[in-house]
Amino acid sequence: MVEVLPRSRPGTEEGRKSDHELEEARAREAEEETRGLSERAVDLARHFAGKIEVIPKVPVRSLKDFSYWYTPGIAQVSREIHKDPELSFELTGRWNTIAIVTDGSRVLGLGDVGPEAALPVMEGKSLLFKYLGGVDAFPIPIRAKDPGAIIETVQRLEPALGGVNLEDIASPKCFQILDELQRTLAIPVWHDDQLGTAAATVAGLLNALELTGRKIWQTGIVLLGAGAANQATARLLKALKCDMGALTVVDHHGILHSEREDIDELMLRNRWKYELALSTNEARARGSLKEALGGADVLIAASTPEPGLIKPEWISGMAPDPIVFALANPSPEIWPDIAKGAGAAIVATGRSDFPNQVNNSLIFPPVFRGILDAHAKGIPDLLALEAAQELARQAKVKGLTREHILPTMAEEGVFPEIAASVATKAVELGLARAKRSREEFLQLAQARMARPKELARVLMKNGLLPPMPGQEVV
Amino acid sequence: MSESRAARLIEEAAASHKETGHRITVRTAKTPDIPALAGLLVRLKRLNEEFDPLLKVRADVEKQAVTVLEAAVQDPRMLILAGEGTGPDQGKIVGVVRAALRDRVFYTPEVEGVILDIYLLPAFRRKNVGEYLLAETVRHLKELGAGIVTAEFPAQNQIAVRFYAKRGFRPLNSKHAKII
What we know:
The complex is a heterodimer. By secondary structure, chain A is of the alpha/beta class. Chain A has helices spanning about 10-15, 20-50, 65-70, 75-85, 90, 115-135, 145-155, 175-185, 190-210, 230-240, 265-270, 270-280, 290-295, 310-315, 335-340, 365-375, 380-395, 415-430, 440-460, and strands at about 95-100, 135-140, 165, 190, 220-225, 250, 255, 300, 325, 345-350.
């Protein structure tokens, strides 16, 4: 999810416009804003030619030190690992190294732009991994379209890696790839577009339910959009004992149900969505989003950035005190003030300039910090759920309100706590190679997450990291 | 097929329905059943279309399905079965079977029961239900004099291949096609 710079808030002049005019004006504004950022981003990309680099993490006093770091000394390290390959997690940087793998088939909202065009995005993700999580993440866009080829490529990379982050791979092949890699690799494999967004969503939802006095198993939830994020959200809701029969999924063909015209096509082409169609909507309700929302408690929209997709009168038709998550970026499916005006008790979006930002950056850095610190062998949905629950708990540190159901990115103390909880849960589930107490994991995470920020500060101060062009004289 | 999460979920779902036994009743179809049966038949034909472009359905497929079924329910050499839901789905047609008796002029057994179409709505597509529908079909065909039962379906339909293989069916004849 993108960070968007703060922008002008609705003023009195806007108040006189109709909801529809307001939505269109906002959408235009969001577009212009993005355009301005886009131009600058291209200039900066040209200026810096890459966002990350490899730097040593051992002292090099002279070339003599290479007798330890390289030959002849290193041969013994190699022999040790040959005897026990698991030692590669202790004697090398494998434990903190991940690959960000994409085939470039669904990059941001751009669609299938191919692996080269995905590279700048993966570099940016790598920077986020390092800056927020202290994780060494290598951008690896690969030239493959076929799920089998992508799976095989990642399998062959496993010996170098402590984890894998799949990114911007089209649905539904992303489900097959994640499943197969999670099943066959002895390192955690995560698909951020699925689990990162879903865990942040579920965290916000848990707090929103608490604030409106609801229990998850008695809550009527509508998911708008059946792509990567919402399918993972459905999985996490199931793990939370949500009543799946009472869950309604709506996509661009309307309400998903087991007798829909395209159901057999789904069985063949998207088994995950097929299974969702069979396990949800027990009443076999039919119709559009409007019908689905009638009397519902919660709407989680993770669809397309189309303001006005959700009509305010449909929100008014929901149960009293409804919860509305409109997560499309940069323009949410309905703007928060319009949703609130229609009766929504709590609104969340994907944007940083409104309260309650559902942001996958709240999740993936601490999740990876935690699983890497535990040298984890895998990352089942239960760990994603643990991260969601800890994120929800952490929102309470600053106090839970309808405008603060999730911590913001500025609440930095939150993230090592999530990392520690994830690592501890990995130990509990028997998935950790490195077993430590929660307190030890917390200290590790605090140090490892603070270091890259300190490093950047020091390097910027002494000029080793160049200034932004145009701001040379500070 | 890998033991993916989806496959596991489907198996779990199937297992959870096991204790309820078959949730349908099966009977010979009558004329009033035809509109509902035709709807299911069309779903099956559209599913077949997914497997092979040579199985592209005609624009008048709905009308054709009705015509074929109307003739078949009157034909002593055809078998049309209707699967009906139980409980809250009582009275709802959820499955269809279309089968034919054929004489085998060169081989024994001399009468073959051919399952041309078999379709269940997904919510009823659980292990035992499909198995029950097939068993009922075989029972009826045997009663009608068939000594061998065969099933026709698109060669690319691996789900059907596995379904029948599990129940003792094996490939017999091949049908190869090209557009001329």
